Amino acid sequence: MLTLRDYQEDAIQKLREGFAKGHRSQLLYLGTGGGKTEIAIAMLDAAKKKGSKAAMILDRIVLCDQTSRRLDKYSVDHGVLQAGHWRYKPYEQIQVCSAQTLEKRGDFPGLDLLVVDECHAQRKQTIEFIKNNPHVRVVGLSASPFTKGLAGTYSNVVSPITTKELVDKGSLVPLRVFIAKEIDMDGAKKVAGEWSQADASERGMKITGDVVAEWAKKTREIFGEPRKTIVFASGVAHGADLAQKFQALGYNFVSLSYKDDEEWKREVIEDFAKPDSKIIGLIACDILTKGFDNEHVMIGVSARPFSKSFSSHVQQMGRVMRANQTNPESKPYAIWLDHSGNYLRFRQDWEELYDIGVTKLEDGKEKVKKELTERQKKESKCSVCAALWVAGSDTCYNCGHVRERKNLVQEVDGKLEELTGAAARESKQQFWSEMTWMIRYQGWSRGRASHTYREKFGVWPKGLNDNNPVVPSAETKKFIDKKLHAFLKKIGKR
Predict the structure, then answer these.
(1) Exposed, middle or buried, 21 (CB in 10 Å: 0-12/13-18/19+)?
(2) pTM confidence score
C-alpha cells in the first residue's frame, strides 16, 4: 500500500487547487529523492478510482520497466504501451509509455490525466500533444525545471519542499565538495551556447590521470577503501579513456554511452546496484543524469564542464545525494569531486535552489555564466585539502584548517565593538564587491545593486572599487532574501 509523506500529500493538494483555479497544465518541482514517482503513482491511482484514464510518459524507453515495477510494488494495475512488451495491455485505465512511443502514436484517445516525467526535456511531440488536447489535465515532473520555454507549456509550478528540507528530513544527504584540477575550456567552441562535446572530451582527456589520482586519494583519505562512484565524462572517448586509467590501477570502472546496447547497459546498471557488485564505478556522459536511482553511490566526479546547463549540473549532483534509507548511518554525506568548474560556476544558483526552491519558471531560464577569476577560484577552496569553503565559516569542514581574515569587529573586554574608520570602509567595500558580483554574474542592474547598498548603509556607494567582485556571504544572502520577501509581501505575492 502506498503511504505518502506530509509534503507529498501537500503537493497533491496544491495541484488540485491549481486545477480548480484553471491551471490545466502544471509543473511539480521536487528535488531528487523527494518521491516524485510516488506522488505520480498516487495521482494515477486516484484517477483510475474515479473512472478516468491516465498515463505517465517517461523520457526514455528503458525507464518504462523501472516505473512499471514501482506500480507493481504498490499493487496498481497498469499496462505498458509498447509493441511486443509482455505487459502490453491497452485496455487498462493506467498506461506507461515512453515519449518515443507517444511520438509514433501521435495521440492518446480518451485520456484524462497525463503525467510527464523529466518534463524539462521539452520534447517537441509531447509539447504539441499538450497544446492540441486542451481537455487533458497535465502534471509535469522535474528536479531541474530550468529549461527556457517551460512557462509556455506549464502555467503553474508547485514546490512543496526545498532540497535543504529534504536533507534535514534525511531523504537526501549533504555534499562534501572538493575543487580539483579543472578542465581548461578557454577558447573552446560552443554550440547553442554550450561547449561542444568534442572539445570538452578532447580537453578532458588531458587531465584524465588527475581525475583518477584525485579519486583514489580522496577515497583512501575519507573512506579508507573504494566506494561506489559515478563519473560524468565529457564524451564517449573521454569516458573510455577514464575507464582504462581506473582499470590500470586495479579499479573496476565501466564506461557507458549511447552507442552501447541497451540490454547490456541495463544489465551493467543492475549489477552495479548490488551491494556485492565487483563494479566500483560507472562512467557516463548523459545517460545517468535522469532516472538513475542508487542510494549506495557515495562519490560523484564531475568531468563534463557546462557553460549554461544548470539543469544538467543539478541532475548530476542529484544522482549521489539520495540517502540510504535501509542503513542511513552508512551514508551520512556524499563526496563531489569537481574537475569541471561547474560547482563554482553555478554555486549561487545552486544555493538559492537549495534554500528556496522554485517559485516561478521564468526564474530558471538558463544563462551563460561568466567564468570566475583565478583569484576567486583560489579563494573558494581550502589551500590545504582543496575542499570548498562552507559559506559563513573560516574553518575547513574537511581538514580543520583555519583561514586568516581581516576582522571587521574587535573584541574588547568581553563585548564586541564595531570598528570605525578604515575598518568601516572595508566593510562597505566588501558589501559593494558582493553587489558587483550580483551585477556581473546574476544579471542585476547597477541601480538595484546601489539601492540594496543604500538600504544597508543609508548612503549611496560612492568612491568604491567596482573591479573586485566577491561571492556574497551567507549574511549578505540573508539580507537580500529578507528584502525580497518584504517586497513580495508588500505587493501581496506572499
Answers:
(1) exposed
(2) 0.73
